[in-house]
Design goal:
single chain; mainly alpha; 24 helices; about 0% strand
Length: about 450
């Protein structure tokens, strides 16, 4: 009986299972050299110690997590270390590859919920072969987990939108709140979500108000314990204190644009200013006071230069495929060579030449995956253009795109990295799938007319 049920399940979902197997094989194949050689070095970035050090401490001695970073990824890593050992970096990389691969499931389900199993398969295939998604799979950063939760978040919204299943909306909000505990950028997503609820046609206002109230309660109930815990420890009522880094990062980028100077030079000036300011322990006795000061100074910069600040948040470079990380985990290139400075000062092509340093032939090796990314963008943004052309009937779909894609593109600001696009890929891949289907239907109609 169990065998026959499993056989029926495999028969009905064979395309999903094939895609999952292929995506996992590709990701593991790319990560395997690093796993076998030195996963701690190969899959780490400057932000990694802020996640793994508290995770090891928690796994080894039960030391509570600090307020410096959101707790989601350190808790995940601590669980892995507790099960496999505090130096089990290879196991952590493999499990991250599994989570990354499993992100195809909610994308496939979203296509089915939207009314097209074919679209679900195409969207899952585009995500499975996405260069940035593949490159980030084993990395010791929060992005893979954040993308996993963002995909389920999108899936539950599609169920609510297309099927009018009211329970799906608060479930989506709960998933979004859990995502905020992984990457705090999601903590403000409640407002676009409530806007989508408020303007949804054919839903009575009483139900909208009830769903909104329940959703706010769910969102607050999930985030409140972490924020209250940090407040009690002198870190402020926040998910983490890393948000204060916006002053010496985004603020330095803003000053570099305004003053026509170098980002690193402005960053060092700000850091020196902070060292002098925080030397006064009476004025700044705890982390909360220091974070408040940094955020206050950053807001002052924004108010002083709003017309320079806003365009910096419209960065198309966030869509660049993450070929560097892909090649770095294979050991073909190295990171942290100052490419971002070149990108900001001289543009994309100069940054590419600087980064590859005579190894441009490596791009040809990535041609198939780059082609998949190109198809994804052409189809997705082609569909978006058609929505704008027919905005009177597609205005709600445009708002959905803004909430599930542009939100994640806008908030990082000028400090962009390809990995920041991951939470937006679920909707982009599904848009691309429907765009390809509509394009093929148009081709077939043209053939019949001939």
């Amino acid at each position: 009986m169990i065998f026959s049920q499993w056989k029926l399940f495999c028969s009905r979902n064979r395309w999903l299972l094939l895609l999952l197997a292929a995506a996992f094989a590709v990701r593991l194949g790319v990560a395997l050299p690093g796993i076998l050689e030195d996963p701690a070095a190969r899959f780490s970035r400057p932000d990694t110690p802020g996640y793994l050090e508290p995770a090891r401490a928690l796994a080894a001695g039960g030391t509570p997590l600090s307020a410096g970073r959101a707790p989601g990824f350190p808790l995940f890593a601590a669980l892995v270390f507790r099960c496999f050992g505090v130096e089990a970096y290879g196991a952590l990389a493999v499990l991250l590859v599994l989570v990354n691969t499993a992100t195809l499931i909610p994308v496939w389900l979203a296509g089915r919920a939207a009314g097209s199993s074919t679209a679900g398969v195409i969207a899952a295939a585009l995500l499975g072969l996405n260069l940035t998604m593949t490159a980030q799979a084993p990395m010791f950063l929060s992005d893979t987990l954040a993308a996993f939760f963002a995909a389920w978040q999108f899936y539950f919204f599609v169920r609510f939108w297309k099927r009018r299943e009211r329970w799906s909306f608060p479930v989506m909000i709960a998933v979004a709140a859990l995502g905020a505990l992984i990457r705090p950028i999601n903590s403000a997503w409640i407002w676009p979500a409530l806007f989508l609820l408020a303007v949804l046609p054919e839903l009575p206002w009483r139900r909208k108000l009830a769903l909104g109230a329940v959703s706010l309660a769910v969102f607050g109930a999930i985030l409140f314990p972490r924020m209250a815990h940090n407040a009690a420890r002198g870190a402020g009522f926040c998910i983490d204190t890393n948000t204060g880094a916006m002053y010496h990062q985004n603020g330095a980028m803003l000053l570099a644009k305004v003053n026509g100077t170098d980002y690193e030079a402005e960053k060092q000036k700000i850091l020196a200013e902070l060292d002098r300011e925080f030397a006064d322990k009476e004025r700044y006795p705890d982390e909360k006071s220091r974070v408040d000061y940094r955020l206050k100074r950053f807001k002052e910069l924004i108010l002083a230069h709003p017309f320079a600040w806003f365009p910096q948040h419209l960065q198309w470079r966030i869509l660049l495929p993450d070929a560097p990380t892909f090649l770095e985990i294979l050991g073909a290139t190295t990171s942290d060579r100052g490419t971002m400075n070149v990108l900001q000062a001289q543009g994309v092509w100069a940054a590419v030449r600087f980064y590859f340093d005579g190894k441009l032939y490596l791009l040809w090796l990535l041609a198939p995956l780059l082609a998949v990314t190109g198809i994804l963008y052409l189809a997705a943004f082609g569909l978006l253009a058609s929505w704008f052309w027919r905005w009177k009937s597609k205005w709600y779909a445009i708002f959905v795109f803004l909430a599930f894609a542009e939100y994640y593109f806008f908030l990082p600001g000028p400090i962009t990295a390809p990995r920041y696009q991951l939470p937006a890929l679920p909707i982009l891949t599904l848009m691309a799938a429907f765009g390809l289907i509509q394009g093929w239907d148009w081709v077939k109609r043209r053939r019949k007319e001939r």
